[in-house]
Write a structure and sequence with these properties.
This protein has about 400 residues and is an all-alpha fold. The chain is built from 16 helices and no strands.
Length: about 400
């Protein structure tokens, strides 16, 4: 199935989209390390990192909405160049020992101009699959492929930042991210598939009434909420891992533990293409959230490094299937003319939930230890499960939106 996906997308698009989304994974940790290094203040670093996350959370859906209305090519091109400039400005300001207020402003600008290549690549790939007459199995495979690229980028991005910081300076990592934004973001914007996706968008816009173009089903908000909760699990897990490795005297293991969870999640996402089509999206969603609850709860009792590795690696099995399924439910539920906006909203929800939970669970871990942070992750998993069992998405009954050949 993945051979068909690569044939559909071509050899260049997955490469430029992967390299174009790497900077998003690099900038969050990179900004924290850079400001901490240049200012000597963890508070200033946390404020700058929070401002970057807030900018991305608020502006991400706006970028997606513009892409739906104007097409991906001009929006991604402008955002990629603006983001490269903003990240470079943040680096120069940090090296110049700028005050915290200025750093926060530049970090927020860097977050707001993120070109959203991940969700837009997912949107473009799905539209190309629909345009080629692909069935639901094809679309599911495309979503699994894009989810795997996301997971790998969020594992590799922080690793590259850590490597650059240890060899040279955190500024080197962010300047590399800016270069990737300018080059690969531009390549993604100018790739011929951007025009094809725009063609399917215009055809869908022509066939769909004005009311249908703007109306979102009520279940959309539940799907967005579950992605915020998924982000909260990421943030709480990160805080718990950091707190426990520090208590065990192995703080350098925190990044490796988190990376191991990401690798397992990517493998699980890659395997999602093998799930039989007869198992519907709603059933997959409920199974994934049940897995989140069952696998997150034992982390509260973890007290050794070996058990921590085992616990978070096993938990990673449920992460990507949940993310991929929610993207699939959204693709089936929203009007095709608002698909990019909806995909960007989901990604922004993960970022926002992660930032909020990291701050909250970090404070809880300081006062009550790692189990308190892992308790936040388990609580978020329970809330995801409640949503999956109480919300009717209507995705199973709705026919697939078949875009005409571009």
């Amino acid at each position: 199935m993945y051979r068909d996906t690569l044939s559909l997308l071509g050899p260049a698009l997955p490469v430029v989209s992967f390299l174009g989304r790497l900077p998003t994974a690099m900038c969050q940790l990179g900004s924290l390390l850079l400001v901490a290094e240049t200012s000597g203040s963890l508070t200033a670093a946390g404020l700058a990192g929070g401002a970057l996350a807030a900018g991305q959370t608020v502006a991400g859906p706006v970028v997606g909405r513009l892409a739906d209305r104007r097409g991906q090519r001009p929006v991604v091109l402008a955002a990629s160049l603006a983001n490269a400039v903003a990240v470079t400005a943040l680096v120069l300001a940090a090296l110049d020992r700028a005050d915290t207020g200025r750093l926060m402003l530049l970090a927020a600008l860097a977050g707001a101009t993120v070109p959203q290549i991940g969700p837009l690549a997912r949107t473009r790939s799905v539209k190309l699959a629909r345009a080629a007459g692909g069935d639901e199995r094809t679309v599911a495979t495309v979503l699994s492929f894009e989810g795997t690229l996301d997971e790998v980028s969020f594992v590799l991005g922080p690793a590259l930042v850590g490597l650059a910081a240890s060899i040279a300076h955190p500024a080197a990592a962010l300047l590399t991210a800016a270069a990737l934004l300018a080059s690969c973001g531009t390549a993604f914007a100018l790739h011929p598939t951007a025009r094809a996706a725009a063609g399917t968008r215009q055809a869908a816009f022509t066939r769909t009434s004005a009311a249908e173009r703007t109306r979102l089903p009520a279940s959309t908000h539940a799907l967005r909420a579950t992605m915020v909760l998924q982000g909260a699990m990421f943030g709480a897990s990160q805080a718990g891992i950091t707190a426990l490795t520090e208590r065990l005297g192995a703080p350098d293991q925190a990044g490796l533990v988190y990376a191991a969870m990401g690798v397992m999640s990517a493998a699980a996402g890659f395997a999602m293409a093998a799930v039989p089509e007869r198992i519907g999206l709603t059933t997959r969603w409920r199974a994934a959230t049940a897995g989140l609850v069952v696998l997150a709860a034992p982390l509260v009792l973890v007290d050794t490094l070996g058990r921590l590795y085992a616990g978070v690696v096993v938990l990673g099995v449920a992460y990507a299937p949940h993310l991929i399924t929610v993207f699939g439910l959204t693709e089936r539920s929203v009007p095709p003319t608002r698909l990019a906006e909806s995909m960007a909203f989901l990604t922004s929800g993960v970022v926002g939930g992660q930032a909020l939970a990291l701050a909250l669970s970090g404070m809880l871990a300081d006062t009550h230890g790692a189990p308190a942070a892992f308790g936040v992750a388990a609580g978020a998993a329970v809330m995801c499960a409640v949503l999956s069992w109480t919300v009717r998405t209507g995705a199973e009954a709705r026919p697939a939106v078949a875009a005409p050949s571009a």
